[in-house]
Structure formats: structure tokens, C-alpha cells
Amino acid sequence: MSGPLISLRDVNKYYGEYHALRGITAEIGAGEFFSLLGPSGCGKTTLLRAIAGFEDISGGTITLSGKDMKGVPPNKRPTNMVFQSYAIFPHLSVEQNVGFGLRKSGMSPSEKTKAIGAALEMVGLGQYGKRAAHALSGGQRQRVALARALILKPKVLLLDEPLSALDRKMREDMQVELMKLQREVGITFILVTHDQEEALVMSDRIAVMFEGEIAQLADPEVLYRKPATKRVADFIGVMNFLPARAGDGLEVAGLGRVDMEGVYCPQGDVSGACSVGLRPETLSLLYDGETARARETEGVIDEVVYYGDMTYYDVRLEGLEEPVRLSMRNMVGRDVMTVGQTARVAWDPRAMVVFPG
Amino acid sequence: MAQGLSRDARLGLITVSPALVFAVLLLAVPLFTIVLFSFWTQNFLEIDRTFTLANYAEALTDPLYRALMMRSLRIAASVTAVTVVLAFPIAYYISFHVRPEKKALWLFLITIPFWTSYLIRIFLWRVILAYDGPVNGTLVELGIIDEPLSFILYNANSVIITLAHAFAPFAILPIFVSLEKIDRSFLEAAKDLGEGTAMTFLRVTLPLAMPGVLAAVLIVFIPTVGDYVTPRLVGGSGGTMIANMIYVQIFDLSNRPMGATLAVVAMATVTITLAWAILHVRFWVYLSDRVGGGLPGLALVGVAAAIDIGVLWWLWHYGPALFGSAGSLGIMAAIMGGGAILIALLLPKGRWGI
Question: For the CA atoms of chain B, what is the radius of gyration?
């Protein structure tokens, strides 16, 4: 394959005065599971709808397999969408919904029936063809919406917050199922979500968007371990921010002095006031007889949040206003510590991400 | 159990009782009186109170009554068709193209004709459509016609025009409401699945707006069948309807039993016609679905409708000469009843929501 499947070049969108998309540039490959992640109002849904053809863009180009999509209406684009509300036609049966897009396919009625059956089988609704659409649960509607889009074999499947209406357990199951389905059909999926966990779990690559701009475009691990800005770091997972001073070495409040060697500075060298990001799992409590692999400090446990497999501790360190959060895997022979206990905390300069300001 | 009326139930009864008393006194009692009268006969100056079906036999077989009844149905059906067809685009425009904050204003503007009395509006139509009225004047002035049109006033056409205008808001509002309820994402989904504007309308918008269209049909058809004032004022002799005959029976001929019978027959006819129409439209839609909709579906609907309506029309017009009045009515009743049972058995369950 030559070139990316979708390429967005300097895409801009204005609603009157409001600048909804500000120069979005990205390339999405064939067969990729791509996510647009950001808080509500960041423009991720607008971008998805622009790719689908529901929004005209004010500037820039959207190319789909080499063809400029300017002026091409949604019904003429090789994309299909799973709507946030699923948009299952209430006056049609499940079969009729799934077969809705086949009118112009040139298939014979028996071929259509077969294709509909196969599509329903694929999403695990083989027995539900004759059901009325309104007699379906939320999860079933979502599957019908998927089958209805995938039966047309689009080059790109667009998913607009498809899991946000499901309860937690169902959502986690569907995440895994969607990933499997995507690998099976090999179609490019573009997912819009505000749930960073969902994006991390499912995506090959994620574009984090704030205020109409892509703040970082990377695979989940890079996004988590090497966030490009403080805002991305804060949005993805939990991050402790410790005030620090850079100069000859790095003076971190509550932890002490660190060499600049080996700390990660995504926005270039810093000097003066800066802030140091540390993920909770890079910090740990030291039990009797344990020693830190790198450095250690002492603090008082302020809060204990017990999750069964994990425990989160908020620990007050000397010289820090806010307690730092750290997470520990619960193990046999390792008691959960209690509030007020003094504890030794192990930390590692190599886990630090330093942001200016 | 006797004093088992809960607080809610008692409160409910108290709330509905004024309306209930009102309905019983002003609706149920007069209706019952009319039904009672319909079985009596007028014997010169007094009423013969022996129970008889003679009035019904006359109402159903007399060519004059039959012609008036049929004309009332035809005019009401035309008014309904014209009103709904004209109302739909207006409702569609308000729902889909008027900005949300302006919708209330538009709906308000549509109700403005109601600020004028119904009677005055009819008189205005009489002026507008008159031989020397503005419509004819304009057309003659523009050279489109040589002499004023005479077929636009004092006949069925003028009745249809006037009633269609009067009932337009009653058709626009229910259709507007049903269009408003359509989730816009359904339309986007249809586009996304490959359909253009026209097919999206036919496959999604129109079916989902059907409850509103049905409501509009009922709201327009039922009162127009029995309309009295409009045919009286703009109908001439060719636009006279069944309600005018009921008036003539009761007030001019002093034959209240016959008037009552005609009223009951008119009510029954409206009910049967609507039930028949609703059932058969569902049947036609079902047939269309069976062949996959689209053009073949439309063609099949056309053929089925032509046969269904044609048979009844033929029997109504030529049946009496061939099978006698009672015979042709009996055959029609048998066909309609049998058809209803067959359709009810044929249509899949759960397809009753239109």
C-alpha cells in the first residue's frame, strides 16, 4: 500500500467566530485502530463528523485513499459510522436495520439474507434478526449498529463514543470485543472517546485533542510514559506533579536533588521553575527489610484507598503541600498500611517527566 | 374491599367528574336521543314511537341520500388529501429548516387565521372565488383566461378549497409534532448508509412521521364529512353534503326521526370508512414490504388500492341495479368484513404500530 488511508492536512473548522478545529494534521493507516481522545468540546466529534462528511471543513484537506473528500456527501464516502445514540431505525426489524444499506448493493434477496445473517453472527446476534428494534437492550443496539455499518465493508469505520451508554462491565467486555472484531475484519477504526482508559486499552495510536488541536499523537505506551505536555500527562491516567527548580541539576520539592542526566524533558531543556511528573506506580512503599533500587525518602500516610488487587496511598512528604499518590500491588505477606503511619517511599529519577512552568 | 378506594382513586374521580358530567349530559344523552329517534317515525304532526328499521332502509337505499352520503365522503376525502399533502411540506419546513428559536413564532403565525371567525373566513372565500372576484379578475387581467371561471364557486370544488384552508393548521400541527420527534441521527444514519435525500425521506422520515399523518387524516376527515356551514355558504347545489340534508329533514321537513337516522348512518359510515382505510393502508404497506419496497412496491400498492377501492365503488354504483339495494349493501358488507378478517389474520403481529 502506498501512502496512508486517511490523511488530514491543516484541517480547520469555524462555527461563526468559534474556531472548533485548529489546523489538524494527521495520517491514519489502513487497518489501524485510531482514537481521538479529549475532554468534551475539544473538537474530536467534529473531526470525526468531518471525516464522515457530516460537517464541511472551513480549510485544509481530508483525503481518503488518495481522493480529496471535499464536497463528497456522506452517502458517497467509503466510511460508515456507529452513532453515539446508535440510531437504530425504530420502525424496522433488526434484519431490516442491518440490511438498510444494501439497497444499491446489487445483491439478490437471498444473498442479502445471507449477508445479514453473517453480519449478525459476527456481532453475536445470530438469533435476533426478526426482533423489533425497540425490543433490544443498549448493548444489543450497539451490536446492531456495528453489524449495519460493517456489512457495507467500509474502508473506515467511525465510532462516536460507542461505549459511553453502557454500564461498566458491559463496556469492558465490548472493548475487548471491538478489538477482536477490528483485527478480524481488518478495517480501519476511528474511535472518538473521552475515556482515556478506553483509548489506552483499544488503540494502536491515539490523538489527544484539546481546544481543537492535537496535543499529542502517539501509541498508548508512549502517551502514558512520555506525555508531551503537562496537560496531556494530567489527562492520561494519574500523575503527581511536584514543583521543582532546574539549574545546575534539578531540585525537586519533597524528594531532593537529582541529576538532569536521565530525566525526560519532552519540551526541551528546562531552567528555573518547573514541575516534575511522576506516575503512582513508579513510587512504592518500602516494607521492613526492603531497600530502594534508586532513591528513597520518608513520609506520613494521609489516605488509603483499597481496591482489592491494588491499594492507593496518599503520602505526605516533607516540603510538599499536596500529598503524592502511589499505588501498590497487594501481595501475600504484605499488609496494607494505615493512615498516620510513617513510611519509606522509594522513587526513581528515571521515571521523571519534567515540564516547564 | 368496598371502601377500598384509595386516596389517589378518590382524588382521580373528583378530578374527572366535572368533565364526566359534562360529557354525559352534553354528549352521551343527546347521542342516545338521536339513536332513539332514528328508530321512530314521523307521522305527520306527531312521532310514532314504535320501533322500526324503516328509516334505515330508506336512508340506505334512497338514491338521493346515497348520493349525498357518497359526495360527503368524496369531498371529505379530497379535503383530507389536499390538506395533508399541502400541510406536510409546511410542517417539514418548520421542523427541519426553521431555526429552533423561531419555531414557536412560525406555529403562532399559522394559527393567525383562527383569529377571524370561521363564518367570516368562509364569506371571504366567497368573495375571493366569486365570478367577479380577485382570482378571476387577476386571471382575466393576466390574459390566462378569456372569461371568468365558473367552476370555482358554488360547487364541490369551492367546498374543498374552503375546508382545506380552514383545516390546514389541524393537519400541520400533528405532522409537525411527529417530525419533531424524529431523532436527527436517524437521518444522518440513513445518509451514512448510502441513501440520498429523497430515499432518506421515503425510507426513514416518512415512515416515522406516519403517526402524525394518520392523526392529521383523522382530525381533518371526521369533522369535514359532517360539515354543514361551508357547503351551505359556498357549496351551491353541487356542493350540498349529508349534514345539509340532516338540517333539511329536521328543520324544514320536520322529520326529526329521518334526520336522526341520517346522522347515525353518517357516523357509522365515517367509522367504517376510516377503519377500512387504516386496515387496507397497512395491508398495502405490508404487500409493498413483501416485494422489498421501492418501485415494485409502489406499483403493487397502486394495483392493490385500485382493486380494493374499485370493487367497492363498482358495487356502490352498479350493485343496486344488479342485486337490489339491500343485496348490494349485503355484498359490500360481506366483502369488507371478510377482507378485514383476512387482513387481520395475514398481517404479522407487532406490525400494528404504523
Answer: 24
3-state class of A93 per DSSP?
strand
Q: Is B196 on the interface with A (CB under 8 A)?
A: yes
* Nine cell digits for residue B209: 412521521
Residue B186, chain A, CB below 8 Å: the answer is yes
- How far apart are the CA of A212 and the nearest CA of chain B, in angstroms? 23
Point out the residue among A54, A109, A152 whose CB comes nearest to the CB of B193: A152
8 A C-beta contact, residue A256 and residue A228:
no
Task: Identify the CATH assignment for A6-230 out of 3.30.479.30, 3.90.700.10, 3.40.50.20, 3.40.50.300.
Answer: 3.40.50.300
Range of the domain at B22: 1-38
Of A52, A75, A85, the CB nearest to B195: A75
The alpha-carbon gap from B288 to the nearest alpha carbon of chain A, in Å, equals: 14
Tell me how close the Cα of B180 comes to any Cα of chain A, in angstroms: 15
pLDDT at B352 over 70: no
Nearest-CA residue of chain A relative to B211?
A91
* Separation between Cα atoms, residue A294 and residue B73, nearest integer Å: 95
Distances (CA, A) of A84 to A145, A146, A161, B179: 10, 11, 5, 21
Domain A239-356, what fold? OB fold (Dihydrolipoamide Acetyltransferase, E2P) (2.40.50)
Q: Do B203 and A100 touch (CB under 8 A)?
A: yes
CATH 2.40.50.140 domain span(s) along chain A: 239-356
Place of cell 475487548: A176
Q: Is A335 helix (H, G, I), strand (E, B) or coil?
A: coil
B282 part of contact set with chain A, CB < 8 Å: no
Q: State how many domains chain B has.
A: 2
Write down the ipTM of this complex: 0.86
Q: Which amino acid is at B200?
A: T
The model's pLDDT over A36-47, given as tens digits with 9 standing for 90+, comes to 999 999 999 999
Report the 3 state secondary structure along B138-179: HHHHCCCCCCCCCCCCCCHHHHHHHHHHHHHHHHHHHHHHHH
- Binned at pLDDT 50, 70 and 90, residue B3 comes out as low
Q: Do A85 and B204 touch (CB under 8 A)?
A: no
Q: Pairing relation of β-strands A18-28 and A6-15? A: antiparallel
Shortest distance, CA A316 to any CA of chain B (angstroms): 50
Residue in chain B nearest A135 by alpha carbon: B350
pLDDT digits (tens, 9 = 90+) for B114-139: 888 989 999 999 999 998 889 999 99
